[in-house]
Amino acid sequence: MTKYKIIQQRDECIGCGACVASEPKSWEMNDDNKAILKNSKKIGEIYTLETDNLNKNMDAAESCPVNCIHIEEDGKKKL
What we know:
Layout: E1 4-9, H1 18-22, E2 27-29, E3 35-37, E4 41-43, E5 46-51, H2 57-63, E6 69-73, E7 76-77
Antiparallel strand pairs: 1-5, 1-6, 2-3, 4-5, 6-7
């Protein structure tokens, strides 16, 4: 069973790159100069990724100046 869910509200991203600097394995800058969560599922402007290991994605979420990255653990909001 997947333990974590990373959620990005991409329409709120300002493209500062803090998430990419924190966790380049999971984040990259897209052609529109906004960050995108690698290997994620897209529903509208919401991108989600279910994973067993957060790696440094908690750091990425905490470094986001507009708080458009959220983390759920076992279905409950962690950040």
